[in-house]
């Protein structure tokens, strides 16, 4: 299947309501608004297609990029290639999908982590913290690393740039969820910092305020 064929199919399956929702969330105008159900079925039809995934990413079309995430061969993606792709992503939903479905699974994820550490880019810092989220979720870091993350969060969360702040906060909550020994410390510190404390959410939803997030998961 060619890039042109895929782009034509995506355009033909645009959905005005989905497009409106994506634009409201921060997607660029280069968006068709294809429903996720269609994208998933289409990805299953295509199968793993590493080369096509790169081509779709470089269209910078939101729907094509979301589809691309589903086509990458994790075993073939290098840290350098992942870093280059991250550099062209401007929409956090695409970045998060790419990070959690692909990048955190690559063999060179630690190499990529080192490449991201000194970045001042809001999106690349978000990518770095996504790796931290996954490390915490899998409980593969030791006490010293947990304390290092908590110290970093305490010093930087309040004034962090918006995209990175969201993922740093997610890591903060994940520490409290995964590491019971640090839960009280996380709850106390999150109350002190107060990030997202006044966040308004729809009925039945949980805010990003860490105490609310942890209590919603740990019942």
Characterization of the model:
InterPro entries: ARM-type_fold, DNA_alkylation. It comes from Acholeplasma laidlawii (strain PG-8A). There is one protein chain. α9 packs parallel to α11 and α11 packs across α13. The chain is built from 13 helices and no strands. It starts with a helix and ends with a helix. It folds into two domains: 90 residues, no CATH class; 103 residues. The protein is globular and about 55 Å long. 63% of the residues lie in helices and 0% in strands.
Brief characterization of the structure:
It comes from Acholeplasma laidlawii (strain PG-8A). Helices cover about 65% and strands about 0% of the residues.
Any key phrases for this structure?
single chain, 219 residues, mainly alpha, 2 domains, ARM-type_fold, DNA alkylation repair protein, DNA_alkylation
Residue share in helices? Answer: 55-70%
Total number of β-strand segments? 0
| β-strand amount | under 5%
Query: Which radius of gyration do the C-alpha atoms yield?
Result: 18 Å
**Judging from the principal axes of the Cα atoms, what is the shape?**
globular
Mean of pLDDT: 97
- The ordered string of helix (H) and strand (E) elements is HHHHHHHHHHHHH
Count of DSSP-assigned helices: 13
- Look at the helices and sheets and give the structural class: mainly alpha
Main beta-sheet strand count, sense and barrel state: none
What count of structural domains?
A: 2
Low-confidence blocks of residues: none
Oligomer: single chain
């Amino acid at each position: 299947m060619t890039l042109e064929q895929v782009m034509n199919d995506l355009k033909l399956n645009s959905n005005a309501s989905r497009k409106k929702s994506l634009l409201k969330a921060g997607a660029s105008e280069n968006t068709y608004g294809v429903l996720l159900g269609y994208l998933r079925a289409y990805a299953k039809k295509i199968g793993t297609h590493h080369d096509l995934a790169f081509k779709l990413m470089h269209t910078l079309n939101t729907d094509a990029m979301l589809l691309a995430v589903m086509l990458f061969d994790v075993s073939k993606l290098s840290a350098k290639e992942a870093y280059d792709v991250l550099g062209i992503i401007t929409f956090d939903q695409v970045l998060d999908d790419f990070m959690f479905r692909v990048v955190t699974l690559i063999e060179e994820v630690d190499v990529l982590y080192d490449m991201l550490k000194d970045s001042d880019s809001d999106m690349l810092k978000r990518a770095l913290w996504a790796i931290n989220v996954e490390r915490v979720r899998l409980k593969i870091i030791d006490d010293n690393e947990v304390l290092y993350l908590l110290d970093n969060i305490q010093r930087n969360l309040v004034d962090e740039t918006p995209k990175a702040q969201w993922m740093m906060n997610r890591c903060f909550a994940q520490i409290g969820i995964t590491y019971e020994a640090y839960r009280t410390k996380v709850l106390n510190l999150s109350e002190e910092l107060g990030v997202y404390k006044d966040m308004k959410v729809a009925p039945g939803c949980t805010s990003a305020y860490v105490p609310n997030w942890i209590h919603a998961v740990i019942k």
